[in-house]
């Protein structure tokens, strides 16, 4: 059987690493309720808090029907290796004695086919078995035990898989699920802060990457460290408000200062616990929750569908953007209305893929604002040089309302410089030529570009420029400076020029 052969190969390769790590695992402790089998050694162990797991409570021999219940709690998994020519029957009877001593109820005691077809499939897909190579569900003598013990704090479930994994070697996988309350207050939010345009200096911890820091609005999850960080003074950010349909996610588009922080966190905290902490903290700080989803309900590739440009290819590191439907993925988007401008925030959480892996968190924050458009200006000398050399000049610093022909107040300095140049060259006549990007129809863009050229002329007339010297032309998207392949390129193509007649 192919799967049996494959497991044998994997076991052989992994046994080399296991032998090298034996001393490290020797210091690991057994679960306080159940000791290891006499003579057994620990090969792998893991603990995760407040995790959801499917527990089998009944099997139907000869069928694929396994009755499962979902349990949330603290999961402690141990993988033991036992040498000494023991049988799965002998080891199994010893663990049945354990169940009796615990005062637990035996739910399942079966061997191989009597457990049903592929009886352990659910186990191989669970968190407890990630990175484990102790048990083998292809062994004909694999014994499976499940028990439940009722306590005043809830039911405790015990699982043992006992198998011949190699010549003379017994593998024992033990999983214990104990009831556990959700640990909250691991994230704090400060909604009463004044957002500064300049970052405050960071007192970085050694685990954080250089130049990174938490955002003042929201803390890191306790115990996390920053692995990825970037901040942009002004950008366009998409905030998902629902699951993607045909690779298109419903979004709110926000422009402003963007901060994206990627965190790594020990897998001792389940994604459910991380998610609940962020959600509780945001609600307590009066954030409006726009959208939340968990696991398969998030759909496929929720984050991957937001951005297609190479510039944003790694925006959500370390979280994988192509979240499969069976990924341990959770998501929150939220909005905080402040006295100045609103703040939008999204949190993406990806669970550890193995029991030795790490949880990954991304917090993406945008503080809505208007772009500073006064960074590029012109003066009469610049206009003279460009017109002398090229016969045309781009009029930087002329800023319009979005999709409108109205000039913003920030255009005043450039209008003054143009007026001064025209006064110095009274014999020159010009076409005032408006250009647009390629968003929208040709007809609308052509009308808009001419309307903007006309607005510039009207403002110059108010500054005592002879209107007979200026002719408005609108050519829309037909003469771009650069390919309309990005937002930055499109912004450069939206312009007004003076062209010497």
Key terms for this structure?
16 strands; Protein Transport Mog1p, Chain A; disordered N terminus; 501 residues; 22% helix; alpha+beta; elongated; 60s Ribosomal Protein L30, Chain: A; six-stranded antiparallel beta sheet; single chain
Give a verbal description of the structure.
- By secondary structure, this protein is an alpha+beta fold.
- It has three domains: 2-178, Protein Transport Mog1p, Chain A (3-Layer(aba) Sandwich), CATH 3.40.1000; 225-368, Protein Transport Mog1p, Chain A; 380-500, OmpA-like domain (60s Ribosomal Protein L30, Chain: A, 2-Layer Sandwich), CATH 3.30.1330.60.
- Helix content is 22%, strand content 32%.
- The strands form three sheets. The chain has a six-stranded antiparallel sheet. Strands 7-8-12-11-10-9 form a six-stranded antiparallel sheet, covered by helices on one side. A four-stranded mixed sheet has the order 13-16-14-15.
- Strand 14 (430-435), helix 8 (442-462) and strand 15 form a beta-alpha-beta unit.
- Helix 6 crosses helix 7 (412-424).
- The N and C termini lie far apart (83 Å).
- Mean pLDDT is 80; it is low at 1-27, 127-132 and 195-206.
């Amino acid at each position: 059987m192919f799967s049996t052969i494959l497991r044998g190969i994997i076991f052989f390769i992994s046994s080399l690493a296991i032998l090298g790590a034996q001393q490290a695992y020797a210091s690991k402790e057994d679960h306080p309720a159940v000791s290891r089998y006499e003579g057994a050694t620990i090969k792998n162990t893991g603990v995760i808090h407040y995790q959801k797991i499917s527990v089998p409570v009944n099997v139907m021999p000869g069928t694929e029907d396994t009755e499962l219940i979902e349990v949330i709690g603290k999961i402690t998994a141990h993988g033991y290796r036992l040498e000494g020519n023991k049988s799965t029957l002998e080891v199994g009877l010893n663990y049945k004695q354990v169940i009796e001593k615990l005062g637990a109820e035996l739910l399942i005691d079966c061997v191989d086919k009597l457990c049903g077809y592929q009886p352990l499939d659910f186990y191989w897909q669970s968190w407890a078995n990630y990175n484990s190579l102790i048990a083998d569900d292809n062994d004909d003598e694999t014994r499976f035990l499940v028990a439940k013990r009722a306590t005043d704090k809830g039911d405790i479930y015990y699982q043992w898989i006992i198998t011949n994994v190699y010549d003379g070697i017994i593998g024992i996988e033990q999983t214990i699920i104990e009831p556990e309350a959700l640990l909250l207050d691991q994230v704090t939010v400060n909604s009463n802060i004044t957002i500064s345009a300049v970052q405050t200096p960071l007192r970085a911890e050694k685990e954080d990457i250089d130049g990174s820091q938490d955002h003042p609005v929201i803390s890191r999850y306790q115990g996390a460290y920053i692995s990825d960080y970037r901040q942009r003074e002004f950008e366009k950010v998409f905030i998902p408000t629902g699951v993607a349909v045909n690779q298109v996610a419903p979004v709110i588009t926000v422009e402003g200062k963007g901060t994206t922080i990627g965190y790594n966190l020990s897998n001792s905290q389940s994604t459910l616990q991380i998610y609940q902490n962020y959600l509780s903290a945001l609600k307590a700080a009066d954030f409006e929750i726009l959208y939340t989803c968990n696991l398969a309900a998030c759909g496929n590739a929720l984050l991957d569908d937001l951005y297609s440009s190479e510039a944003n290819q790694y925006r959500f590191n370390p979280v994988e953007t192509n979240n499969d439907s069976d990924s341990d993925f959770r998501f929150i988007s939220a909005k905080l209305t402040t006295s100045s401008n609103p703040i939008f925030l999204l949190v993406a959480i990806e669970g550890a893929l193995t029991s030795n892996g790490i949880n990954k968190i991304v917090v993406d924050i945008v503080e809505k604002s208007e772009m500073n458009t006064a960074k590029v200006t012109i003066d009469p000398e610049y206009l003279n040089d460009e017109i002398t050399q090229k016969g045309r000049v781009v009029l930087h610093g002329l800023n319009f309302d979005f999709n409108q022909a109205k000039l913003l107040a920030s255009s005043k300095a450039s209008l003054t410089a143009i007026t001064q140049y025209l006064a110095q060259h009274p014999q020159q006549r010009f076409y005032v030529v408006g250009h647009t990007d390629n968003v929208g129809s040709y007809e609308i863009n052509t009308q808009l570009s001419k309307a903007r050229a006309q607005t510039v002329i009207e403002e110059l007339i108010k500054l005592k420029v002879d209107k007979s010297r200026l002719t408005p032309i609108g050519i829309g998207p037909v003469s771009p400076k650069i390919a309309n392949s990005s937002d930055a390129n499109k912004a450069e193509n939206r312009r007004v020029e003076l062209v010497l007649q």
